């Protein structure tokens, strides 16, 4: 007599376990990293490779790890510091890794300009004759610094523009950090900062302008 539990040649002892986990790789600011490699091993000595995948445009890819548990993960991407460590994952869950950009670019950004141009336009009276104009900003790490002798930014004024978690900010005269009204840390970005005495104390005095003046910096590659 045949096995009453047999179905299609498989009895109740068959094991078709599946435990798919999504692995996502991001940079500072939550930017998705495409082309990152994620490898999952069964222990910290690397041991047996369970599976690997390469992230797509969403920054994610999937691996069938077999069962929920703790595994050893190795994550790498060109231009970023690799990750290796223990990770606890759950079936049908998502595990996210955040990598640090190793190149001298804006945090989380790729191939941004090494130099920027910052143009100042003041709406006010009695200002320094050197106030308006365009200055060159030179990149150092995640920031661009003004080094233009004869212009108010030299030793003061706009002394740094930095990407902080993919948000472009300016530091004015060492005291004011103003978010850009338009944020775009990409190879062809521009940003505008509007400074007033309300958000940057002593700015009128610094430029010798009448009270209530506005100072608009426009930054372009």
Observed structural traits:
single chain, 221 residues, mainly beta, Immunoglobulin-like, 2 domains, eight-stranded antiparallel β-sheet, four-stranded mixed β-sheet, 1 helix, elongated
> What general outline do the C-alpha atoms trace?
elongated
Number of helices: 1
Percent of residues in beta strands: over 45%
Largest sheet: 8 strands, antiparallel
- How many runs of DSSP E, i.e. beta strands? 16
Class per helix and strand makeup: mainly beta
Low-pLDDT windows of residues: 1-15, 104-111
Spatial ordering of strands, largest sheet: 14-13-12-11-10-9-16-15
User: Cα-atom Rg, whole angstroms?
Assistant: 27 Å
Approximately how much helix is present in the residues?
under 10%
The SSE string, one letter per element, is EEEEEEEEEEEEEEEHE
Integer tally of domains: 2
* Mean pLDDT, all residues: 75
What would your notes on this structure say?
This protein has 221 residues and is mainly beta. It has one helix and 16 strands. The longest helix has 5 residues, at 203-207. 28% of the residues are buried.
Give the helices and strands, then pairings.
Layout lengths: L19 E8 L3 E2 L4 E7 L2 E9 L5 E5 L4 E8 L6 E7 L4 E5 L16 E9 L9 E8 L2 E4 L11 E7 L2 E6 L3 E4 L11 E5 L7 H5 L6 E7 L1
Parallel strand pairs: 1-8
Antiparallel strand pairs: 1-2, 1-5, 3-4, 3-6, 6-7, 9-10, 9-16, 10-11, 11-12, 12-13, 13-14, 15-16
């Amino acid at each position: 007599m045949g096995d009453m539990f047999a179905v299609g040649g498989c009895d109740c002892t068959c094991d078709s376990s599946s435990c798919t986990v999504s692995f996502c790789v991001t940079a500072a600011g939550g930017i998705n990293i495409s082309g990152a490699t994620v490898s999952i091993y069964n222990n910290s000595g690397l041991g047996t490779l369970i599976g690997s995948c390469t992230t797509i445009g969403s920054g994610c890819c999937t691996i069938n790890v077999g069962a929920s548990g703790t595994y050893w993960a190795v994550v790498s991407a060109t231009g970023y510091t690799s990750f290796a460590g223990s990770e606890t994952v759950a079936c049908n869950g998502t595990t996210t890794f955040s990598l640090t950009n190793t190149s001298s670019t804006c945090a989380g950004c790729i191939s941004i300009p090494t130099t920027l141009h910052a143009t100042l336009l003041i709406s006010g009276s009695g200002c320094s004759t050197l106030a308006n104009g365009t200055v060159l900003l030179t990149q150092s790490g995640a920031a661009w610094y003004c080094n233009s002798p004869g212009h108010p930014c030299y030793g003061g004024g706009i002394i740094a523009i930095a990407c902080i978690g993919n948000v472009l900010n300016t530091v004015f005269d060492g005291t004011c950090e103003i978010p850009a009204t338009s944020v775009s840390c990409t190879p062809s970005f521009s940003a505008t900062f509007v400074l007033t005495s309300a958000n940057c104390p002593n700015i009128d005095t610094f430029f010798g302008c009448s009270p209530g003046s506005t100072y608009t910096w426009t930054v372009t590659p």
